[in-house]
Amino acid sequence: MTSLNQTLFEKSSKLIPGGVNSPVRAFRSVGGTPIFFKKGLGSKLWDVDGKEYIDYINSWGPMIVGHAHPQVIKAVQEVAANSLSFGAPTGLELEMAELINKLVPSMEQVRLVSSGTEATMSAIRVARGFTGRNKLVKFEGCYHGHSDALLVKAGSGLLTFGEPSSAGVPAEVAAHTLTLEYNNTQSLKDLFAQIGDEIACVIIEPVVGNMNLIVPTQEFLQTLRELCTKHGAVLIFDEVMTGFRVALGGAQALYNIKPDMTTLGKVIGGGLPVGAFGGRKDIMQCLAPLGAVYQAGTLSGNPVAVTAGLETLKLIQTPDFHAKLAAQTKKLVDGLVAAAKEAGVVFSAQSVGGMFGLYFSEKCPTSFAEVMQSNKENFNKFFHSMLDAGIYLGPSAFEAGFVSAAHTDEDIAFTLKAAKKAFLSLSNH
Ligand code: KE4
Active site includes 320? Predict the structure, then answer.
């Protein structure tokens, strides 16, 4: 009998390209049919056919307090009853700005938007307006949303023009974007030595979650900070994923580095569409309506979305929230490493706060090139064994995973039991 999931996917595919809206890469990398869900509660999800899963995607990060948290749902329902949108300011936005400023003090001023893509795109525009320069530097394997200037792959040499990584992006737009290798301090120094004074901004995931989990070296981030300061380039930390997740104050608190600007998303909306960008007051003052850099949004600062974020941010400020989240995530990672070892499978894993990376390679990679060498076939087999057992991991070897405060010891134990079987089936082939 055809499952409801299969029927929905086939019908969706006729109307929606690839049958999906989020995530667009769907199950292309691992094969099979994307799962259609109908319910989530705490650490669990249920698909349209009633199958239960432990969720390690967390809607790509936002659901840090678990699905359908009663405090978040109640607040959203109450605010929604007073109208869904005004297109005009509310006190909730002030509350959010105050909270962001308290938790991430480098964000002296902040503007709310509706997605991570908008946040990074707008931050770059402000940085360019502020410096009067065009060149943008990013790192191979980091993802900052889908605006044109960021869909760029590295050219062959340090100073060659970036090339579009997507059809539809004009070469002229990509040409302003330079791509360097993550964690490669020397290439940073070389680039700044050559064209440092032409660089408007450098955007970076301070802990990367978009090529699997990649951890920065302190020296790399420190050097980046020093070079940007020396050459007057704006340093943008894209904390859309790491914000409020790797630590209450984000990666900038964890590594003690103060960026000029920060972008936020995911957790800040608690599952509804909110993004934010902000930073030094002198830079943010360039923004409309005060300054010459234009940016706007019909639903920016939407009261219902901001409420979901505010309630989530209240919950994550409870004492030891992040220590417990990090410990639970580490328990999962250590258990997986032990299970793989027992089964004789080449595997490594690590975590930062509530984010984790699983790699079918001897040691945890430190760059895009190293990640690409991991055993993708083994990941895909492991992914499907786990999915069959009711464990929902990111459907790609190049995504970080997420644990929420709702993941219990039983959830971790259940996951590790499934993983033992999955690793054993890999080693038996
Ligand atoms: P959104 O526009 O998807 O809200 O945010 C873009 C973005 C910006 N910066 C970072 C560091 C991000 O991780 C993201 C989005 N993350 C992906 C996770 N791989 C969202 C899911 C997807 O579409 O792939």
Answer: no
